[in-house]
Structures are given as C-alpha cells and as structure tokens.
Specification:
Number of strands: 15
Number of domains: 3
Strand order of the largest sheet: 4-11-10-9-8-5-6-7
Structural class: alpha/beta
CATH superfamily of the largest domain: Type I PLP-dependent aspartate aminotransferase-like (Major domain)
Radius of gyration: 26 Å
CATH class of the largest domain: Alpha Beta
Order of helices and strands: HEHHEEHHHEHEHEEHEHEEEHHHEEHEEH
Oligomer: single chain
Length: 486
C-alpha cells in the first residue's frame, strides 16, 4: 500500500536579508523582527509577498527556530504579516502607515521626491469607525440575487438609467423609511446617490452660495464639513449640550445662516440623541427664516438603550428637512448606494444636479438591493446585526471599564457602531493614534471632529467590524499605548 504525503507549499526562492550581529548584543528574535519590519515599511517587502517559513529562515541564519518563531508571532500580532491556512505566511495587505516609519534612514538629498502616500482608512483593523460586521453579511443570499439579475439582465437594465434611481429601489426605500423610521415620503421624492457624501455635496450645490453660512454640530462629522464647503459657504460650528445642537446659538447667526446639518438620532461623534423639545425648536428655526435642515440619519437602526428613535423629518410639516441615508453601514461600504428624501419644491433642482455629477448610479446593484429589501432579507439582517453589535459593544465596554478605567472614560455607547471616550488631561488623541497605528489599531481622534479649537481630547472607537475576542485584545493594547503617552 502506498501513502501520499500532503504537498507542502514551495518555499520562496530567496530568504530576505537580515543584518545579523554576532555576538548578539540585541536578542536574536528582536534583530529578525526589526529587519522584517524595516523591510516592510520601506517597501523592500511588498504587501502580499510570501515569506519563508520560520524553519527555512532559521536554517538560512544557522540559528535555532525559536527566535524566528517569536519574531514572526510579534509581526503577526502587530499586523505586519498574516498567515493563510495551507498557503504560508505573507506580508499583510494593510500595513501600518507612514507614521510608523521611525528609524528608517532617509535617502540622499538629490533623490526624487517619494510618490504620494496612499490614504489609509484603517482597512479592517480594530476600532475602524463605521465598519459593519462584514464577516456576518448574508453573502449567499446576496449572491443569489445578483445571479438572478445578472444572468438575464434586460436591455433596459443595461442602458442609461434614471438619474433619480431605479424605480423599484426607490419604492422599496420609501416603504421601509415610512415603516421603520417614520419618514414622510413616497418613491417620487427618493433620490438614489452614491453614498451620503454625494448627498451632502448635492445639498451644498442646491442650497448654498459662496459666503452663506452653513451651521454644523460642534464637535461633528468632518466629512460633512468637507462636503458642505464645496459650495464656497462658510462653516459655522454650533456647540452641543445634552439635548443636541444649541438652537439659541443657531438663531444668533441671523439671516446669513441658510442651512443646518444635524445628526439627531445618534449624534456623531458624541452619541447624543436630540430631544423632542429641541427638535421642535430646530424645525421652528427653519420655518421662521426660510432655512433648510439636512438630517443625516446614519446607523440609526442600531440602538441599544431603547427602541430606534423616529426621524426628525417625520415631525416636519413645513417641508424644510432634507433626509439623508446610506446602506454603507448597515450592509457594506463598497456598495456605494445612498439616498436623499428631497422636499417637493427642491426635487427638480436636485435631480438636475445629480445628473450633472455622474448621470446615474449603477443599475444592477440597485436592482439587487431592491429585491434584498422587498423580500425581507434586509429586515432579517438588521435583527441579527442588532444582537451581534450589542454583544460586541458590551464586550468592549466591559473591557474598558475593567482594564482601561484609569486612562479612558466612556462618554456614550447607547447606539450605533461606535462609542466615544475621553482621555485624561494632557494626553493628545492624535499622538495616541499615531502610536496605536504601529500596533495594528485604527480609531478616530475626537479632536479631529472639532471645526474650531478642540474642547476635549478623546477617541472614537468603532466596534462593528471586529469580534469580541479581537476587540478585547485591541483594547488592552490601546490601554498600554495611552499609558505610554501619559
């Protein structure tokens, strides 16, 4: 009888150079770790490049295997390398950014300038804000719907689409918003866009002129400030209190204030929910001066302290609220489908401007999403995700309170996919994040959410995209980093 041995993946032809010092004044595992980390950060080892096994490395360096194992485990823990079952070990595709390149020798003075640094959005690393649980997305259901439309795609679906969006999707969104969010709308005024950033740009283009004042929450969402500035308007930060945006400060801006951007259901980043009294005052402000309100209802489906709150738009009887939503956080970001509920007087202007930007959104994705909503898959997915995110949030909150209470104070964790937490006095959040990036952690700085001078230093920690085990481990690392900075 013959036996067949499992085939081992071939080793890389070349073992990367490790500048070994003997006799060792630095531990052998540290020399290997430093050499590989430097090679990765300087680009000598590229993302996705396969590495030798620890056995092959030890043989090449003529040392025992243990230092090589210890070095690789540290690189793996910090996110520089990754293991693939049955394939081997590879340079991670999403490595820490340029801020971690301390100690890398500069090139000669006459060297050409380096290429632009790619924008680092944190990838799939722990605490990435606004990242949903992609590992629990119903891929099979989505794939079946995609196959259904792809295999018999009609000529109409392949041709130029309606700038306002695929009608079945607009109908499905209108039905969902009316039932789940209390939004007053029908399909005739649901405009499909490529995410909430496009929606905010449309609002700026349609409603603001250079020199107008657009009021935003302070602190607030930096992406909204950037989008609203595209019209040439001046961004005016309005402070928050426990009830939401301060409408008295808003009214003090006078006639120059043409628009207010708010996140009433789950304020970004602090998590405050705007009270009913404050909502009514805000609507009165808009009606009294022929002004507009942009309501960004991001991730409002996820609320843990109570049932989801109704939309501000549903309380509006004067058609002064433009309602913005997206599927990026409840489904997956690369879908790039958002929507705007446009007041009837603004409809023609919004559609014309939307067509000028990129004509229409891809129709195939809209058709698949329409079936996903109409056949009940979306509602089932939301129910599963609420329970999942509650578990992830609880694990993170418990760990912070148990192990990080001396360096991090949770401000609000009642809703959404992130929580906000304050740092001790004298600790700067950007420095914490700079060091945390080198250990495979991504979060957002609270100070970056201020249009003016930051009042508090803190962190915005996303918990949707990582499981409990990963969140707890990352929290421990984050605590060590904060203590180092302190």
């Amino acid at each position: 009888m013959t036996t067949t041995r499992a085939r081992r993946a071939p080793e890389p032809q070349v073992v990367p150079f490790v500048p070994f010092v003997r006799p060792a004044t630095v531990p052998l595992y540290r020399q290997i770790y430093d050499a590989y980390r430097t090679a990765i950060l300087t680009g000598r080892l590229r993302p996705g490049q396969r590495l030798p096994s620890t056995r092959a490395l030890a043989d090449e360096l003529e040392i025992s295997r243990l230092p090589a194992v210890n070095a690789f485990e540290q690189l793996l823990h910090e996110g520089y390398i990754e293991g693939r079952v049955g394939a081997g070990t590879f340079v991670a595709g999403d490595i820490p950014d340029d801020l971690t390149r301390a100690g890398v020798a500069p090139g000669p003075a006459a060297a050409a300038p380096p290429p632009p640094t790619p924008r680092d959005e944190g990838g799939l690393r722990p605490f990435r804000v606004s990242l949903p649980a992609l590992d629990h997305f119903p891929h099979r259901v989505w794939g079946r719907l995609l196959w259904r439309h792809g295999k018999r795609q009609s000529s109409a679906l392949m041709a130029y689409g309606d700038p306002a969006g695929h009608v079945p999707l607009r109908e499905a969104i209108a039905e969902y918003l009316g039932v789940a969010r209390g939004v007053r709308c029908d399909a005739a005024h649901v405009l499909i866009v490529s995410g909430s950033q496009m929606a905010l740009q449309l609002c700026a283009m349609a409603l603001l002129d250079p020199g107008d004042a657009v009021c935003v929450e302070e602190p607030g969402y930096p992406g909204a400030r950037d989008a609203l500035r595209t019209s040439g308007a001046t961004v005016v930060p309005i402070p928050l209190d426990a009830e939401g945006i301060d409408v008295r400060r808003l009214a003090a801006q006078g006639r120059r204030a043409r628009l207010a951007y708010v996140t009433p259901s789950h304020q970004y980043p602090l998590g405050v929910s705007m009270t009913a009294a404050r909502r009514l005052a805000l609507l009165a402000w808009a009606r009294g001066g022929n002004r507009w309100i942009v309501e960004d209802d991001y991730d409002s489906e996820y609320r843990y302290a109570s049932r989801p709150l109704g939309a501000l738009q549903g309380m509006d009887r004067g058609a002064r609220v433009i309602y913005v939503g997206t599927f990026s956080k409840v489904l997956f970001p690369s879908l790039r489908v958002g929507y705007v509920v446009v007041p009837p007087p603004l409809w023609d202007t919004f559609v014309r401007l939307r067509e000028a930007l990129d004509i229409f959104s891809p129709t195939l994705a809209q058709a698949v999403l329409a079936d996903f909503l109409r056949e009940g898959h979306f509602a089932r997915h939301l129910r599963r995700m609420r329970k999942l995110y509650l578990g992830r949030r609880d694990a993170l909150v418990e760990r912070i309170r148990a192990r990080l209470g001396d360096v991090l104070t949770i401000h609000c964790a009642d809703a959404g996919l992130h929580l906000s937490a304050f740092l001790p006095a004298g600790v700067h959040d950007r420095e914490v994040l700079r060091r945390a990036a080198g250990r495979g952690i991504t979060a957002s700085a609270l100070s970056a959410c201020y249009a003016g001078r930051p009042v508090r230093q803190g962190l915005v920690l996303g918990f949707g995209g990582s499981d409990e085990r990963r969140l707890v481990a990352a929290a421990d690392i984050l605590g060590d980093v904060i203590r180092e900075v302190r």
